[in-house]
Amino acid sequence: MNDVANNIVAFMLNKEELSAKSATFIYDWIKTDGKEKTRIMYNIWDSVLRIYLPTERPVIFRACSRISKREIQSFTGRIRCAEKFSDGHKGHLLICDTAEYLYYEDNINSSPPYEHSFFPVYDLIRKNLKCPTPQFTQNFYDQYKCEDEYILRVNINKLYDLKWNRKS
């Protein structure tokens, strides 16, 4: 478990190639429905988020019917993707301005373990495709790129929670 998390972070920091085991984890995460994700998957993301702090600061979104207490959740960098997952504008739209969200990490606590962090899954796949021996195929990338997925350690008190305005 830790070897996968460490390899994912090392790959993003240009320290080593992405291992086949890490690529399989990412592939399984993407292809697995939310209800089927295992505790081990969440533990791996927990480890990654404790040691990885990205340099980019996007605004990210999550559509959900109810606010979940799950500490680690998937977000998207595209509002249209969140709208697609909203099931006809039902429930909540969570918004995370990562620049605000990570203010403490950026300005006070600049070393691991990080309390708040996120991970750009889409960026990992795009970066891997540029490697001499990529673990992911162009077809997989093309199917997945519209989701622009981020994994976020959620602190609901630091997110914007909006209700969708239902379409008539």
Largest beta-sheet characterization? 3 strands, antiparallel
Instruction: Give the overall shape, derived from the CA principal axes.
Output: globular
Overall pLDDT confidence: 92
Could you tell me how far the N terminus lies from the C terminus, measured between alpha carbons in angstroms? 47 Å
Number of helices: 8
Fraction of residues in β-strands: 15-25%
Widest sheet, order of strands: 1-3-6
CA-atom Rg in angstroms: 16 Å
Q: Helical amount among residues, as a percent range?
A: 40-55%
Low-confidence stretches: none
Tally of DSSP β-strands: 6
The secondary structure category is alpha+beta
Order of helices and strands: HHHEEHEHHEHHEE
Outline of this structure?
This protein has about 170 residues and is of the alpha+beta class. It is built from eight helices and six strands.
